[in-house]
Amino acid sequence: MGKFSQFLTKYYKKEVGKIVFENGLSLNQLSLEMWERLGCSQIDPSVLSRVMKGKRLFSFRQLRVFCDLLDIPQLDRNNLFKNLEEDYLNRCGEFPEEAEHYILSEFINKQDALDSLVKMLPEVKTSLIQSLYDKLIPQEGKMSTIGLAFKKRSYYKLIKESVRLKNINDKLGSYNVKIPVCGFQRTVSNFEDNCNCGYHLALYGVIERGTKQLKNRVKIQQEVNKWINYFFPVQRMQESLNKNSYKIA
Ligand SMILES: [Zn+2]
Fold first, then answer.
1. In angstroms, what is the span from residue 239 Cα to ligand 1's centroid?
2. How far is the CA of 173 from the centre of ligand 1 (A)?
3. Residue 249: which pLDDT band, with cuts at 50, 70 and 90?
4. What per-residue confidence (pLDDT) applies to 100?
5. Number of domains composing the chain
6. Within a domain: residue 249?
7. Which of 55, 73, 101 represents a domain boundary (last residue)?
8. Separation of CA 205 and ligand 1 centre (Å)
9. Which of 38, 74, 121, 194 is most exposed, with the fewest beta carbons within 10 Å of its own?
10. Is there a single domain that holds both residue 76 and residue 185?
């Protein structure tokens, strides 16, 4: 049984061998209501029963509908979503479509990033690309100001820390977390409305550490920017070169 299905036990009782949810619906009735709200697809009593037993996981959309039907309060919703994320993290290779960015696109190494930038930007001098890269992109393995080295391993550590946050409050909201792979732009204090991609969870982890260690919003944002540069060196370099129009023949 995963953490999610354990947490779920809070919302139903077993009465004479039958499951009764908080709103009085049976397993069959609830799954029928969910099925209707999910566009007459995605769920049936056996799926719901397997979710309750921890044998499979809800998709994020299914969980949202489940929470709506049981009128679950926001704090509990946040916890349910976090537990679901954590179970997904612990079951590698079984991610729902919405969470597929968890499976990290390969971290590109410096030489490969430089090679592709040189190819993409033939009008820019190679030496300029190299020196800008050293200025903009954190060096692999270098210690950051939040006590974690810029390493692939840190990405997973940050995601885990973020999923385990007790409370996502206003302190963590409104940071600029615009990244190339998704449309999400600013952190929100409500976990359910998170983007759910691994990069953004990792950035919440950066902000949480920053809130404890750096305390100052400007410094925390700078730290967030460094991690974005580290995750997306090629795209960040391209943006910077375009913005500053380093078009040197
Ligand atoms: Zn995202």
1. 19
2. 15
3. very low
4. 53
5. 2
6. no
7. 101
8. 13
9. 74
10. no
